[in-house]
């Protein structure tokens, strides 16, 4: 006899003023199953998770059943933003999720540390549990969040909801996390796994449920599915999972940006040239300097040294590069780019307010025209320019952040993880947008933990290892296998 589902959802409906976010959705998660939930941004995934978490109430007639007498106590969440205090250690973060061990009003720090080590023992991560989590890697932070969510579950039974756990992880760390997820399932925990990375969904999940525009499209076993078929279910029409911009080589064109002897925490004397109309990729494993490079060029890393030159102008120390027109689109959209208390218009125009003045005041006419132009150019879908930025899907938020950078009319754009946390259709739209700008002459430097971004856009890729450029890939050498092999080889040097 089969065990009852850990989670059973029937006719789940949620309406907001003017929209139906979920329309009679059915979903169940079997005991011991990893069940993936996928869909484009705006498909209803977030609403469904918020209903499970108790943040929203479903419409009357919806049925959500959790098996077991303890009900919601057997339901835990790890959200995309993790909900950790990065200034605090793993010991402190785990204690805040449960309780501090005390005696006579004083914290028993030795016992607290021992319990933290016990909670993390099953996850095979090398982590200084007393150091601030700001110094931890993304996968280490995710493991701390998972351990905190599972604390107090004897035997591991229950349902764990993982929302985009690998959104900004490089391939090696993403694979490590998938192994951890499999280990959590082996302990008896069922998992509802939400991700836009279709390859990892197919690798880790037993079944997948697809939502589109708030409605159930299908629930299928992952065996026999491929990424193209899954993307088609999500988008309703064919999405090119293997999109390539097909930009021509640009090394014969004028140099738009030149950098020399860049040094920082992870960089050890990097120099490079970026040409007009070129999309230059930067690849490397964690600690190689690849994720730090764009921030150094933008003047956003304290104590970095070296110099940068735009279009043959006199060299500028990178410590002063913030004065140059070198806009940076960072990896962590939620923490470093989006201004959550502001509207779409305010998020877009904040970088060019000086151009919108009429005397001492802001010209609302100029502001409106600029917002209309750029939201149309980058194809932002929103209720209107005054809609809150957090009401937009992740893909549309990313387009607004891109528009903010492009509104500065730069000659060079620094772009980090452009498709992190966005669905396949939005991913392709962002790639096409960047390619359009490159064809018009914009020079783009792209760093990404996702090889797909580099494959889609780049005509040249620099591979970093131990803070130096150690390989250059061009043309047909830019393949997923070639990138991963080059990064792994440089890590072993």
Automatic annotation (TrEMBL):
UniProt keyword Isomerase present: no
Key words of the record: ATP-binding, Nucleotide-binding, Repeat, Transport
Pfam families: ABC_tran (PF00005)
A single MF term (Gene Ontology): ATP binding
Superkingdom to which the source organism belongs: Bacteria
Sequence ranges assigned to domain ABC transporter in this UniProt record: 7-238, 252-491
Entries under PROSITE patterns matching the protein: ABC_TRANSPORTER_1, ABC_TRANSPORTER_2
Keyword Nucleus: no
Name of the protein described by the UniProt record: Sugar ABC transporter ATP-binding protein
Species the sequence originates in: Pseudonocardia nematodicida
């Amino acid at each position: 006899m089969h065990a009852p589902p850990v989670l059973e959802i029937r006719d789940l409906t949620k309406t907001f003023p003017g929209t139906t976010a979920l329309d009679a959705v059915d979903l169940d998660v079997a005991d011991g199953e990893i069940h993936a939930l996928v869909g484009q941004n705006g498909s209803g995934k977030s609403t469904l998770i918020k209903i499970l978490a108790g943040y929203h109430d479903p419409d009357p007639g919806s049925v959500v059943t959790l098996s077991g007498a303890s009900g919601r106590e057997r339901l835990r969440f790890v959200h995309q933003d993790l909900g950790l205090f990065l200034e605090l250690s793993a010991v402190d973060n785990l204690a805040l999720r449960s309780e501090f061990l005390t005696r006579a009003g004083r914290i028993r720090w030795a016992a607290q540390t021992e319990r933290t080590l016990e909670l993390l023992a099953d996850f095979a991560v090398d982590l200084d549990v007393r150091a601030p989590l700001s110094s931890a890697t993304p996968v280490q932070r995710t493991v701390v969040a998972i351990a905190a969510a599972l604390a107090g579950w004897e035997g591991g039974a229950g349902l764990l909801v993982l929302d985009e756990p690998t959104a900004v992880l490089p391939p090696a760390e993403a694979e490590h996390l998938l192994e951890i997820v499999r280990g959590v399932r082996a302990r008896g925990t069922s998992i509802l796994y939400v991700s836009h990375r279709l390859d990892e969904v197919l690798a880790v999940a037993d079944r997948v449920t697809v939502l589109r525009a708030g409605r159930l499209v299908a629930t299928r076993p992952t065996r026999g599915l491929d990424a193209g078929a899954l993307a088609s279910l999500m988008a309703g029409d064919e999405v090119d999972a293997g999109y390539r911009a097909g930009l021509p080589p640009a090394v014969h064109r004028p140099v738009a940006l030149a950098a020399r002897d860049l040094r920082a925490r992870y960089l050890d004397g990097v120099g490079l040239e970026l040409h007009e109309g070129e999309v230059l990729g930067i690849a490397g494993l964690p600690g190689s300097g690849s994720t730090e490079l764009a921030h150094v060029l933008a003047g956003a890393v304290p104590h970095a040294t070296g110099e940068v030159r735009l279009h043959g102008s006199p060299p500028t120390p990178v410590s002063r590069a913030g004065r140059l027109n070198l806009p940076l689109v960072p990896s962590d959209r939620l923490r470093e780019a989006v201004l959550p208390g502001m509207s779409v218009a305010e998020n877009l125009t904040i970088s060019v307010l000086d151009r919108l003045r009429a005397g001492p005041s802001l010209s609302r006419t100029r502001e409106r025209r600029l917002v209309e132009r750029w939201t149309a150019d980058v194809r932002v879908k929103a209720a209107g320019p005054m809609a809150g930025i957090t009401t937009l899907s992740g893909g549309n938020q990313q387009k607004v952040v891109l528009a903010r950078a492009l509104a500065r009319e730069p000659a060079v754009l620094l772009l980090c993880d452009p498709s992190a946390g966005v669905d396949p259709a939005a991913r392709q739209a962002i790639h096409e947008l960047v390619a359009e700008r490159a064809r018009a002459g914009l020079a783009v430097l792209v760093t990404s933990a996702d090889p797909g971004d580099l494959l889609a856009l780049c005509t040249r890729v620099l591979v970093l290892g131990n803070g130096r450029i150690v390989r250059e890939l061009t043309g047909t050498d830019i393949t997923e296998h070639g990138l991963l092999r080059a990064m792994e080889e440089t890590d072993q040097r």
